[in-house]
Amino acid sequence: MKHNNGSESNIFxxxxxxxxxxxxxxxxxxxxxxxxxSEKQEIEKPPQKDKRIQTTRRTVTTPPQPVYNPPxxxxxxxxxxxxVLVLSVSNxxxxxxxxxxxxxxxxxxxxxxxxxxxxCLGSNNQHQQIELAFDKYSVSEIQESxxxxxxxxxxxxxxxEGFKPNKNQLDRYDAFSSLTSITDFHISxxxxxxxxxxxxxxxx
Length: 204
Hints:
39% of the residues lie in helices and 14% in strands. It is α+β, with helices and mostly antiparallel strands and 204 residues long. It has a 5-stranded antiparallel sheet.
């Protein structure tokens, strides 16, 4: 009986030793699996982005502001007008008086209005061209006629509405009165009546 008990005891010891060896093997296998899983997770883990905020320095270019240049004031030229009065050659003595005076006096304006047959008002820059156009109508002594005319050229410092066409006698009177003290005038030579075709004269 003692011999059998010893054999059983050895069997139990061997069995226990094997169980412990199996347990150690299982522990090692478990640790190996855990380590492999951990390494796999490290490999598959995506790289983390740098969370630091990178600021980009921008240079803001301000567009040039338009510069307002006020328009230059318009300088109006003082355009003078010239007045052409048509008188009969029979009034040449009165015109000679004006020519000697070198000035139109107040007591001459009413008489000048009565003697004027036709009138024309124009721009002073046309003055010279118009006078040249009249040259071909000048009359020699052997061609003189009672119908001949004489022109009185007057440069106006101030424009007067009364010299326009179709004005009444009161407007005409005021306009001729404005000729007082004028010195910028001259008289044409004796001309043929046909000279009236050069300009658009209208009756007084």
